[in-house]
Write a structure and sequence with these properties.
The complex is a heterodimer of chains A (281) and B (231).
Chain A: H1 2-27, H2 33-45, E1 60-65, E2 74-76, E3 81-83, H3 85-97, E4 100-105, H4 108-116, E5 122-123, E6 137-139, E7 144-153, E8 168-172, H5 176-188, E9 191-195, H6 198-206, E10 213-216, H7 217-227, E11 231-243, E12 246-248, H8 253-268, H9 271-278
Helix pairs in contact in A: 3-8, 3-9
Chain B: H1 3-43, H2 48-63, H3 66-82, H4 92-117, H5 121-129, H6 134-164, H7 176-187, H8 190-228
The chains are: A alpha/beta (281), B mainly alpha (231).
Chain lengths: 281, 231
């Protein structure tokens, strides 16, 4: 029995060792955040954020974003990097304000979870500023105006939400399009089926699995135009709103300040218009 | 449905993802084997608290879906640990590794237990009456036989774990399914992309099956030879 417990102890120690080593190996690629945090609190405490002399911080902010939301963020297979309007905008603002960041393109839901759990310092993912979201997030000034529109197959005869009665509509989880569909589903009598990302949702509509979906106007317009999807938009843009950069409520206020100051600067010097023009807006 | 376009555009991206899939599956299976073995021994221990630790662990892991565990590990743990260690962060890879290891560990513990209980109690009695300690009986008599019995189920668990890595794409683990999703997000080439992904999985799992089949054969061969010698 004695030697048996000895073996047990040995195995336990071994498993711990393996776990610790694996943890180190996996975490090794990232800079340790703890000492940086202390440095940044000092910066935030020092006043004078709005001046042209930008507050230079040593901290590398962790920013999350979607990975399949063209033209705001999508993967460029030729360049082998994530590109898009949000990516360019944040890069320009960071350069203007002199802060460093590390981008994680992990998906929209993953980004919201990461910000809420403190895994990420902020997110920029074509995220519309809404009252409900303001309960959990602090937003920057809006940087892009958008709204939702109804999308149906190119050969569909559906012309208004009234034609959706008895059908099932596609929606992308936690988006404004889904919120809008939910708000009118009882009025028009349709069901909602949820998808994780935009391409899956579009395909469900193209295949005829679902009768229609509600999507951000700028995004679906770009998808139809650039990829020739067999879809068409019908009706007017509803629910107009602004996209904003978000942080966890009450956290990283200096990041929001820098984003706003940088946004104002790049709007003033024309960089903002240039970025929008690059994506056809 | 343009296979040549997808092959030329996405091969590099998908191979990057495949690398992550294989690495995370291999490491988590190694850790899972250790956890599984320890938990299996705990489950058979004479000390009641160890038995209960094993029972509760296996109960929780087998009783909840992996996607839920992944969300809890990735979004919950950092909040929990962050209360004591400010600024604590967990990469998607580490969170995925923890989830996958804990999962494989629970199932492997049960597989090992099954293997051990398949060994005839007469074997233990014989070893003990020959004067072997209980630990030596375990290591020299029970485990080698149990291992052989457990191999087919272990292979099954290895395959399941490799495929289960795809579930972790929801927390942003850059595995092959995640990469495929990203590529489809920019190209809308659903059919071709996921067909290619399926082929990659088939290749990896076929390799695993061939290798493990050889191991299994070799062990059976050894057993036959060992039996022949004394006769």
């Amino acid at each position: 029995m004695k030697s048996f417990t000895k073996i047990l102890g040995l195995l336990l120690a071994l498993s711990l060792l393996v776990a610790v080593m694996a943890g180190c190996g996996a975490g090794g690629g990232e800079p340790a955040p703890a000492p940086d945090d202390a440095a940044v609190t000092d910066d935030a405490a020092a006043p004078g954020g709005d001046e042209a002399a930008a507050p230079v911080s040593d901290k590398t902010y962790v920013i999350y974003s979607d990975n399949a939301f063209a033209p705001f963020e999508y993967y460029d297979t030729e360049a082998g990097v994530y590109v898009g309007l949000d990516m360019d905008l944040l890069a320009a603002i960071a350069e203007d304000q002199g802060f460093k960041y590390e981008m994680h393109n992990d998906g929209f839901d993953a980004s919201m979870g990461a910000v809420q759990s403190g895994q990420a310092d902020g997110m920029i993912a074509g995220m519309t500023i809404t009252e409900e979201r303001m309960l959990t997030f602090d937003f920057s000034e809006g940087y892009f105006e958008d709204g939702q529109i109804m999308v149906v197959p190119a050969d569909s005869t559906i012309a208004s939400p009234a034609d959706l009665a008895g059908t099932t509509v596609a929606a992308k989880t936690s988006t404004q399009g889904a919120a809008y569909a939910e708000s009118i589903k009882d009025e028009y009598g349709f069901e909602i089926q949820y998808y994780e990302d935009s391409p899956t949702m579009y395909t469900a509509v193209i295949n005829g699995t679902n009768s229609a979906c509600f999507e951000d106007f700028s995004v679906i317009g770009y998808a139809i135009q650039s990829e020739g999807l067999a879809l068409q938009t019908v009706g007017d843009v509803v629910n107009p709103g602004y996209y904003g950069f978000a942080v966890q409520k009450g956290m990283n206020p200096e990041l929001i300040e820098m984003f706003n100051a940088g946004l104002a600067n790049i709007k003033a010097d024309g960089t903002y218009d240039q970025i929008l023009a690059n994506y056809g807006y | 449905m343009d296979f040549s376009r997808v092959l030329s555009d996405a091969t590099l991206l998908l191979l990057q993802g495949l690398k992550v899939t294989v690495i995370i599956a291999v490491i988590s299976l190694l850790i899972g084997m250790v956890i599984g073995f320890v938990m299996c021994l705990f489950g058979m221990s004479r000390i009641w608290i160890l038995r209960w630790i094993s029972k509760i662990y296996i109960w929780i892991i087998r009783g909840t879906p992996m996607i839920v565990q992944a969300f809890i590990v990735y979004f919950g743990f950092p909040q929990l640990i962050g209360m004591f260690v400010p600024g604590f962060r967990l990469e998607a890879f580490s969170a995925g590794l923890i989830t996958l290891s804990l999962n494989a560990g629970a199932y492997l513990a049960e597989i090992f237990r099954g293997g051990i209980s398949a060994v005839d109690p007469g074997q233990v009695e014989a070893a003990r009456s020959l004067g072997l300690s209980s630990a030596r009986t375990m290591v020299k008599v029970v485990l080698p036989q149990a291992f052989r019995v457990a191999i087919p189920s272990m292979v099954n668990q290895f395959i399941i774990t490799i495929k289960d890595t795809s579930i972790l794409s929801v927390i942003g683990l850059a595995d092959i399914v995640n990469k495929a999703k990203v590529y489809v997000g920019a190209s809308y080439q659903f059919f071709a992309t996921y067909t290619i992904v399926a082929v990659y999985y088939l290749i990896i799992i076929s390799i695993l099956m061939i290798v493990l089949k050889r191991v299994e054969k070799k062990m059976n061969y050894e057993r036959k030879n060992n039996r022949k010698k004394p006769a």
